[in-house]
TrEMBL record:
This is Uncharacterized protein. The lineage of its organism: Eukaryota, Fungi, Dikarya, Ascomycota, Pezizomycotina. It comes from Apiosordaria backusii.
Length: 200
């Protein structure tokens, strides 16, 4: 399960960076024009959707495979074929996020916010936290940030991670990535959605 969660985080940090935003810093993706509204094209057939999605997964896999890996990662990944790992990633990708990655158009912030949240304690996963500014005083205040993270604590899963992220208790104030959120002037009430889910 842990290898699937880590693979999912690597894949969707890469996929979202390439498909939705123009600037990346660590787990953050900055996207301009929060208020733009577009719709995803529906002129792509289901078969073409699957082909495009798998083609993008393969491209990301090939790109990530070129990076240096620890001996443990090298051994684990080489124990199965790329086709096996890609099929597992596809299987656990949230349905609506898969639709976005199968589209010929880039998603808007409002579309990403429309994705569902899986409030489960019985699954690990990868989530996307859409950060919007607290207030807009200048042009740059219209920019949003996307934060990608993972939840893997056994028996707590995605549900517990979301509670911790949205908690207003003083003891949680310095828990990452809350200090970064405050420094960027983003609202703590921003939307969190599920991208990838793997049962424990």
């Amino acid at each position: 399960m842990n290898i699937y969660r880590r693979l999912g985080l690597s894949f969707y940090a890469t996929a979202t960076a390439g498909h939705a935003a123009r600037h990346t810093t660590a787990s953050f993706l900055r996207s301009s024009f929060c208020e733009q509204r577009y719709t995803i094209s529906t002129d792509v057939s289901p078969g073409e959707d699957d082909t495009l999605f798998r083609s993008r997964l393969l491209t990301i896999w090939e790109g990530l495979s070129a990076f240096p890996k620890t001996p443990r990662w090298e051994k684990t990944l080489s124990s199965k074929t790329p086709e096996f790992w890609l099929s597992q990633i596809e299987q656990h990708t949230a349905k609506h996020f898969k639709t976005i990655l199968s589209s010929h158009e880039s998603p808007t912030i409002s579309l990403l916010e429309s994705l569902e949240w899986s409030d489960t304690a019985t699954a690990a996963g990868v989530y996307l936290w859409v950060w919007k500014p607290r207030r807009k005083r200048t042009y740059h205040d219209s920019e949003c940030y996307l934060y990608l993270g993972s939840a893997s604590k056994f028996g707590a899963g995605l549900a517990d991670k979301r509670r911790a992220l949205l908690s207003t208790w003083p003891s949680t104030r310095q828990q990452p990535p809350k200090p970064q959120m405050r420094s960027l002037g983003m609202s703590p009430k921003s939307k969190i959605v599920t991208l990838f889910e793997v049962p424990f």
